[in-house]
Amino acid sequence: MAPSAVETKVVDSSGTEGIAAPGRQSYKIASIPADGIGPEVISAGITVLQKLSEELDTFDLEFEHFDWSSERYRKEGKYLPDNALEIVKGFDAILFGAVGAPDVPDHISLWGLRLALCQPLQQYANVRPTRILRGTSSPLSNCKIGDLDWVIIRENSEGEYAGHGGTSHMDEAWSVATEVSIFTRHGTERIMRFAFETARSRPRKKLTVVTKSNAQRNGMVFWDRVATQVGKDYPDVEVDKMLVDAMTTRMVLKPESIDTVVATNLHADILSDLAAALAGSIGIAPTSNLDPTRKNPSMFEPIHGSAFDITGKGVANPVATFWTASEMLLWLGQKEAATLLMEAVENVTEAGVKTADLNGKSGTVEVTDAVSVEIEKLARRGKKV
């Protein structure tokens, strides 16, 4: 569902096009806090989003909360109601917390909630920007702000997470389990085009295609072939290819050599977590699950997961959710608000208001309050100008 207004296009930090409309806009956001620290960070995210709306006075956000979580699964035996997809299609975007609980097998929680939304809603482009924020540091000793500034694009609908396969003769000596990676021409080409468009929109116009075609001689060779064919339509984009294992080494040793990356569902899942750690903490990493056709709402979530070890302690880092909220605003066309939010976040981290994962001493509420105050300062300074 897209906002109904006269549309002009803007391009966000990941290279995707948003919708900008004159006048005041109103957006319906489905809030799914789910498990662990999800409710804590989503609450923090909504606080700063409402503060932005209040201070800028150019758009409205209407949130509706859904109790789709592991707690619901324990009570009812399922995460989602039967009409969940129809419900969320009535919203402009989905703000998602985290799914997973110690007493529910991970494959049940993941497929029961997150993937049950992403796949049928055709959110095939998973976009994960990564950079070192002001006031934070990388564990890489020589890596400075600006050296690590990446966008990792993950194919989000098929590949290794297509859900094809099965198990037979369970618990017997001759039991067999298969997990089939699916690479279709349609799925591979659309993510490659998305990746090339993203790379083209960024200053360096550089794309790294991650593969493992030396060992996986069918699906990954196909992946490489489609990448090469699509690349012919983008002569202005510099392209290189890396085997996924070599890519991990390059990310550590030569972060400045990387800009935009495209990889399969599994490979990008792993690489993006490494990227977050190299940027300082997985607690700052955002994700956008996009349907670039805009036929369905896109879903925005922090990467960090449910983190039950710190749930309820008030120490969860809300920055990943703030950055995720900024990406959501960009997708909705609210570029001014998105930019202001990230400026507020970095002003706060630079001032030393940080959670423990960033070597700080502040809690979730303290960081949220500090960002809210900074939003007010920046917005009112802008109005004076």
UniProtKB/TrEMBL annotation:
Taxonomic lineage of the native organism: Eukaryota, Fungi, Dikarya, Ascomycota, Pezizomycotina
Gene3D superfamilies: Isopropylmalate Dehydrogenase (3.40.718.10)
Family recorded in the similarity comment: Belongs to the isocitrate and isopropylmalate dehydrogenases family.
Name of the featured protein: D-malate dehydrogenase (decarboxylating)
Pfam families reported for this sequence: Iso_dh (PF00180)
Gene Ontology molecular functions: D-malate dehydrogenase (decarboxylating) (NAD+) activity; magnesium ion binding; NAD binding
Annotated SUPFAM superfamilies: Isocitrate/Isopropylmalate dehydrogenase-like (SSF53659)
Enzyme class: oxidoreductase
EC number(s) stated in the UniProt entry for this protein: 1.1.1.83
Annotated Isopropylmalate dehydrogenase-like domain residues: 28-371
Keywords, comma-separated and alphabetical: Magnesium, Manganese, Metal-binding, NAD, Oxidoreductase
Cofactor(s) the protein requires to work: Mn(2+); Mg(2+)
Catalytic reaction list: (R)-malate + NAD(+) = pyruvate + CO2 + NADH
